[in-house]
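Progress against Task 2.4 (sequence-to-structure conversion) is shown through the following example record, which the project officer requested during the mid-term review.
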Amino acid sequence: MKTIAILILIVIPVLIFSVTRTVSLDGTQQYTSIQSAINACSNGDVVLVYPGRYIENINLNGRSITIASRYSQDPLQAYIDSTIIDGNLGVSIKIESGENAVINGFTIVNNEQNQNPGFISGIGGGGGIRVKSSTALIKNCIIRNCIANYGAGISVSSNANATLENNRIYQNRALCLGGGLLFSNGNSLIFNNNHLNSIYDNSAAAGMDIYIGWMENYPNTTNIVLDIGSRELTEPDNYFINVAQASVTVNIAQGFFTVIDGDVYISPDGNDNNDGITSLTPFKTIKHALQVIKSNPGNPRTVHLSTGTYGFNYNGELLPLSLKPNVRIVGSGTGQTIIDGELNNTFFAGWNMEDVYVSDISFINGRSNNTHPVEIIDCSDIELRNLIFSNNHGYLTNGIYLLRSNEVILENLTIGNTNFSMDVEFKTIATYSCSNVFINGVISHDNINTHINCNSIGLYFDYSDIILRNTILCNNSATDAYLILYQNVYPEDSDKNLDMSNVLVYNNNITNCNWAFAPVYLQNRYQSMKINNCTFAGNQGSGYFSAIFAYADIADLISYNPQFTSEMYLRNHVWNVHTGQYVDADVNIRNSLFRTGSIPADLPNIVTLTENVFNGNPLFLGTTTDTLSISQPEYYFLSSNSPCINTGTADTTGMNLPPMDLAGNHRIWDNRIDMGCYEYGSTPVSIINPEYPPLPDQIVMSIYPNPVYLSGSKGSYAFIEFILPEKAKEPPLVEIYNVKGQKVKSMRLTESYNSLVQKAGLSNQVKQNGEFYSTVWNCKNEGNQALGSGTYIIRITAGEYTGLKKIVIVK
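Structure tokens generated for the chain above:
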């Protein structure tokens, strides 16, 4: 009774002295704008708004008040529909200064004309309503056609509290997180169980309808109860409802979209009112296809993109889009299927999900200040294959960004043709705290940024486990930047390492290495990094070309960069701030060629040098003919007089080398391996005499490792590589069978190494005598489930050519 009496004493004065201030556009009420009425309010007052379109950006400015339409007096839907607050590409309502507010009975928009402005300056969160460090009751509102970087409909953050009652939130667009609603670092979010809300058909890079993450009170649970959602759900699906570092329950009674449990088809000339289930009746937008296709673990479905260009001004595509778990997105080929950011938007994001596959698409003209062209965060089982990135730039990258993700395959990618002079990063691929990342067949080329604060322009690997194969970095230019950075310094990441082979780094121009200690900077304080059969040549700059910190095992390397003072520096006596002591690291360098006469080291006594060539000249093929340019990869083939021929490591046991060189030739030829990424005089694997008709089993493939050990800490994977004698009439098909003859997996290989080089504009004729294919298989079946131990048969078919080989998987 005492508590009730105190509450009465507090509430009655507020009720007695509260004032209702009325607003109408026609001047018949006290005020003609909502903001002017707010400015006259005291705590507890009510702003009553008459019908009309109020083009305003409302800020409560610390006042704890109620803002209501005539619906609060007479609950007719017409009052909600006709009382509109239009933020006009600004935040419609800001509640962010400690207020306790009620918003009742409005239609709230800020992008009625569905403009595509790209980054929304000043709208970090909340296009419709932003709630920060405050408490809000939002009820009886329609929130639609709003745009923001985060939480386009409603954004609740910074220890705020929000209660939602009888709202409809739809067709809003966030350029990053939370299309309809974002709740991040908030205190409480309550969905009224009696007056249900509906949140559906929104768009975002992550959390198409709702994003909830990074809760201060985690693991307290947020209960999402909706009348209508984009689909009926009983738990977060990390597509419509995306959750990170939060506990969430879900109960959505009705789905707005009819779900399709099968493949769907899209064409820029299609129609989202079609059924989408055949190529003759395609949908029009990728967004709609992803909304309706079912996420089916164990039986993934595919979104097929036909030839054409997808973008806002082409087919109304709302970018960026969220990837969807257990769904494949497959284009018609990098020259046929194009997604155009139109210098306003980036492309795809995957947050907190498993089993995503994207292939055979070109991404062009992407721009964003707060998303990456393609970003993968807190994900596993990701495959990105056969993609072109051209003239893109997002937040820190112009290609792919990986954070805290596991089991990732990046294969057959070209990332380049981006020219900026701005204080931005140009990382083509960036990984942070990732495990089991397999990068195979990547070309980072022709990226230019001359701004002094551009510190990366290539591959950037932080605290990650990386296997890097068959990769080229060339013709890039920056003032002070890393071409390749790998670092691993934290004890919790001691099991992670770098293993790189067949990597060619040439004709890059880093004019002033100051912040970036060296263009190639590799550091692991716990394991020996593996650097095998790589070529670093023809790069321009000063100082050290490469710097090796702590442990490394280097073999068969060519390092020839005449403009640099020194080819390599070994910092093998490194202070570890985490352990409070120095790391004295062994370094082993063997069978490698260096232009300079020595390799400076902190502790030369623990550096082992074996059969190296110092003060050497590799005599590249390009130096013996005037038909090759330094911008072409074949310039760096070995000429017949090269000292690198047959001087590589005599015993390659345990090196985990690819069986083929970067061009697809036999790696070990004439009984000895060569230095560098190209093998001199070697014939391509499986080249057939063109004078004779093809016979069965004429494709000879290499598979490594073989056997594959499922218990390995590096994940289960196998590289499958082969050469075709000529360009395939149709893409080669790789099929894997168990010993019972049952097919467990098939992969269509649409890009060869040769086609990648040609599409990057590096050479028209990289190799006359065959097409080199290399692909990574994660030892999983078509449903992305790990296969058991046993013997499997790999079959390759390309026109009339076929090949068979066994692979053994061992637990």
